[in-house]
Write a structure and sequence with these properties.
mainly alpha, single chain, Endonuclease Iii, domain 2, 58% helix, Endonuclease III, domain 1, elongated
């Protein structure tokens, strides 16, 4: 995708949704961190069904530790991999208290020292909680970036690096949300809705349906 097409691509998505928001429920940086960690190999809808009650009981690391691993597990047992996730959330909360004074750090390397927190989760938290222009490459962004020719790469890290190079600064703050939403609702995995695509003219997908 040429620089002019990249600019047109994001200009279009921006006009349609000037202030895109994530779809996970959260109330502060800590609950966002927990929600994003829970969303690994799970849907946002599934996570959102479980977290309101969890966050009413514990919306800080101290409250989460007090709640305990067993009760955390009871709250999230409808989410895939809930045993491992409950263990990670408890351990994450302990480490946040011991190492960061109970405050979620606004630093990728620090975030990635927490149990259950990988680069994608760290990037989401940095973007949504702290306003950093990060690119959190999930399956939707990976697919859209490769399919459209926006940022081709064989791994999420390579796609992230390419996005950081090609996305104009004016769009970087919201780029990952636009791409996630586009992949979730239009540029779907099995059957992309090319006939409804607002960025059809910019897309380089060779098999796209003619309109």
């Amino acid at each position: 995708m040429t620089p002019d097409k990249v600019k047109a691509f994001f200009t279009c998505l921006q006009k349609l949704n000037p202030e895109p928001k994530g779809e996970l429920f959260y109330t502060n940086p800590f609950t966002l961190l927990v929600a994003v960690a829970l969303s690994a190999q799970a849907t946002d809808k599934g996570v959102n069904k479980a977290t309101p009650a969890l966050f009413r009981a514990a919306d800080t690391p101290a409250k989460m530790v007090a709640l305990g691993e067993e009760k955390i597990r009871d709250h999230i047992k409808t989410i895939g991999l809930f045993n491992a996730k409950a263990k990670n959330i408890y351990a994450m909360s302990v480490l946040l208290i011991e190492k960061y004074g109970g405050v979620v750090p606004a630093n990728r390397d620090h975030l990635m020292t927490l149990p259950g927190v990988g680069r994608k989760t760290a990037n989401v938290v940095l973007n949504m909680a702290f306003g950093h222009p990060t690119m959190a490459v999930d399956t939707h962004i990976f697919r859209v970036s490769n399919r459209t020719g926006l940022a081709a790469g064989k791994t999420p890290d390579k796609v992230e690096a390419k996005l950081e190079r090609v996305v104009p600064d004016a769009f970087k703050q919201h780029a990952h949300h636009w791409l996630i939403l586009h992949g979730r609702y239009i540029c779907k995995a099995r059957t992309p809705l090319c006939g409804s695509c607002p960025v059809y003219d910019q897309c380089g997908y060779r098999k796209k349906i003619k309109i």
